[in-house]
Design goal:
single chain, 173 residues, alpha/beta, Rossmann fold, 6 helices, 38% helix
């Protein structure tokens, strides 16, 4: 059984809404969900891009993972230090009793060997399933990281529910 899964999504698909809906449902069912959900805030300063924030599930702790690079910049706005701080915070919260670790993305940081990679491994070592999202841009890096131990799911709430339900049923049996 694959305890690691990523939802493949493309521009225009509300992946944050899908993950939030899945999280709310699991919490209502009484499951212990850890992790972060992403939201985009209104533009700040001279940059036309929206700010990216991660909200810790349960505690509500906020992490701004974007940085302002100025009006003339075109590079990635991801703030590696903020992402590392968020990852360390979540790793401190992990417990063996958790039913799911939900992360916003397998993206640039993870594809370069940083980001949430160590957190993902720590969660799996505790036997806690991990769900995240991946864009086609990072699909090859995701497949190399997850090898045959990870599932790539379609952008479909019922597919995500089916994946997690199979793990929960197997764990109970």
């Amino acid at each position: 059984m694959q305890y690691l899964a990523a939802v493949l999504f493309d521009d225009g698909q509300d992946i944050d809404g899908l993950l939030a809906a899945f999280c709310r449902q699991r919490v209502r069912e009484g499951l212990r969900v850890r992790g972060v959900l992403q939201s985009r805030q209104a533009t700040s300063g001279e940059c036309h891009c929206s700010d990216m924030d991660l909200r810790a599930i349960g505690s509500g702790e906020m992490f701004r993972i974007s940085q302002s690079l100025g009006s003339g910049s075109s590079g990635c706005r991801l703030h590696p230090g903020a992402l590392a701080a968020c990852s360390a915070y979540l790793e401190e919260q992990l417990e063996e009793r958790d039913d799911l670790l939900l992360l916003n993305r397998f993206g640039k940081g993870e594809s370069e060997g940083r980001g949430f990679r160590d957190l993902i491994c720590a969660s799996l070592a505790l036997g806690t399933p991990v769900l995240l999202a991946v864009r086609p841009t990072y699909l090859e890096a995701w497949e190399q990281f997850s090898d045959r131990y990870g599932a790539t799911l379609p952008f479909d709430l019922s597919a995500v529910e089916g994946w997690h339900n199979s793990l929960v049923q197997r764990h109970v049996a």
